[in-house]
Amino acid sequence: MITVFGEGRGFRVVWLLEEMGLPYKLRPVDLLAGVENDAEYLTINPAGFIPAIRDGDVTMVESIAIMQYLMARYGPTPLAPDPHDAAFPAYQQFLHLGEAGLAASIYFVVVSRNLAPEAERDNWGARKAMEVFESRLGLVTRQLARSPYLAGDKFTAADISVTYALEFAQRTGAAPLGEAEQAYVARTTGREAYKRAMDVCHATKAWADEVAASRNSRGQ
Ligand SMILES: N[C@@H](CCC(=O)N[C@@H](CS)C(=O)NCC(=O)O)C(=O)O
Fold first, then answer.
1. pLDDT surpassing 80 at residue 60
2. Fewest C-beta in 10 Å: which of 24, 45, 100, 115?
3. In the structure, what pLDDT confidence band is assigned to residue 117 with cuts at 50, 70 and 90?
């Protein structure tokens, strides 16, 4: 049985597992309560960040690497086009851009704005991270003008990777999405596997519901 530790970017892993129909369990990790108090999780990932997985005697971190591991070990799956498929280069590029270009940069914008001491919130690093996010988002926008999904006509794990980053940006209010990105997110999150993943990821669901309720109360 595969165990996924933590939500956050662990949502990508849970969504992928739902798409692939693989059995798993989610073991919550509460970073806000202080990972230093979660001795069991620190034996899984001594660096203390989430997500991680345990699969038999395999332990791994890094959400994109975990997705690649699961697709390679339990595939083949249409979520990962064959390297000889014309969709493969764009798939590979956006799979990684979703984390390295989008989620990693917007994460530091958000933690700077919300968690840094007041005097350090507006800082060069956070502004640069915002620029990086926006320039990479431009590549997503350009691709969506060509095809409904990032690797072409078919949904792949690259869409899981990028959708996570776009939803994070949108929910935190760090970067509002344009019309094309909003339509894209509606398309990817309309999938049954996404909905099942949301039912499993209680913290993510509670956060999404809270954001939606607060926007509704402000008439947005
Ligand atoms: N590149 C990593 C990023 C992991 C990451 O930064 N996770 C966040 C939550 S989603 C976290 O644990 N932050 C706390 C920390 O880094 O100490 C991945 O894709 O898994």
1. yes
2. 115
3. very high
The minimum-distance atom of ligand 1 relative to the CA of 48 is: 17
Are 136 and 105 contacting, i.e. CB atoms less than 8 angstroms apart? yes
Beta carbons within 8 Å of 50's beta carbon, 6+ residues apart? 5, 6, 7, 8, 9, 10, 29, 31
Q: Compute, in angstroms, the gap from residue 37 CA to the centroid of ligand 1.
A: 17
Q: Which residues of 14-78 form beta strands (DSSP E)? A: 24-27, 52-55, 58-61
Q: Which atom of ligand 1 is nearest to the CA of 62?
A: 20
In tens, the pLDDT along 179-217 reads 999 999 999 999 999 999 999 999 999 999 999 999 899
Report residue 100 as tokens. Answer: 């390295």
* Number of H-type helices and E-type strands within the chain: 10, 4
